[in-house]
């Protein structure tokens, strides 16, 4: 299998950004040389975010993950690394899934390098991956001891079901794993079953209000998870309040009243709840129009 890939080029796809100012001088592509990393100014004490998009995506200026990067750097003291794996995420899907494993291992290698050479604490590292990128993040977590957090944005379902031979994202991949499910229909792109410590199911996790009149509703629903995460970054404008509940219908019927141990905020401000069992389901409703946060529990 390894002969199918150019491992030298697999070590390259990292665009590194840091607070407070982003200019061309602040952008470095890590290309197997220490000088490229040395030229990239970042503060090892800042939290580090890895942004990982999914299958068949090209990193264009309007990419949601670049918007996430801009939002994060404008609001917080973060280091942000965009995993630019466009050369490896293209069809056929099976090949992209295999590449995701290899790129995930390279993400782990970079984290270990930053720990050894820059003093970065893996517990201060947060991977955010959409679709196939969520499982890529899971592979990185499996290969990085004491990784702080992984957020899976509608993790890809094809080839990653309960009986998969692939290593899919799971709650043991980091100290805290949270997942947003937005397209878990039978023929959707995302998984239905819980993966994380906390699994968020906006609007039940299948159909999203903003996609009702969209022609390609499956793709729209699948891409809703990164939209929600993007809007969650600015907590002064949007809070996605969620409640733990066994079923979405019970949530809608008001059978799961919110309290301090059964509520959480979906997206960037999500927090691990002490004593909560893994794979706990949290539900919420969202709006049809942007901003999508409802700002109330139900």
Explain this structure.
The protein is of the alpha/beta class and 298 residues long. 27% of the residues lie in helices and 17% in strands. The chain is built from 7 helices and 11 strands. It has helices at 7-10, 34-38, 64-75, 93-118, 132-142, 217-232, 248-252, and strands at 14-18, 28-29, 48-52, 79-83, 125-130, 149-153, 176-180, 198-202, 240-244, 263-266, 280-284. Strands 2-1-4-3-5-6-7-8-11-9-10 form an 11-stranded mixed sheet, with helices on both faces. β3, α3 (64-75) and β4 (79-83) form a beta-alpha-beta unit. α3 (64-75) packs parallel to α6 and α4 (93-118) crosses α5 (132-142). The N and C termini lie far apart (49 Å). Residues 1-12 and 21-33 have low confidence and may be disordered.
Weakly predicted, low-confidence segments: 1-12, 21-33
**Sheet bearing the most strands, described?**
11 strands, mixed
**Share of helical residues:** 25-40%
Taken in chain order, the helices and strands follow as: HEEHEHEHEHEEEHEHEE
Number of helices: 7
Mean pLDDT: 86
In total, how many beta strands?
11
Q: Give the terminus-to-terminus CA distance.
A: 49 Å
The largest beta-sheet arranges its strands as 2-1-4-3-5-6-7-8-11-9-10
Envelope shape: globular
Q: What proportion strand?
A: 15-25%
State the oligomer: single chain
Radius of gyration: 18 Å
- Which structural class matches the secondary elements? alpha/beta
Domain Lipase: 24-292
InterPro entries: AB_hydrolase_fold, Lipase, Lipase_N, TAG_lipase
Family: Belongs to the AB hydrolase superfamily. Lipase family.
GO biological process, one term: lipid catabolic process
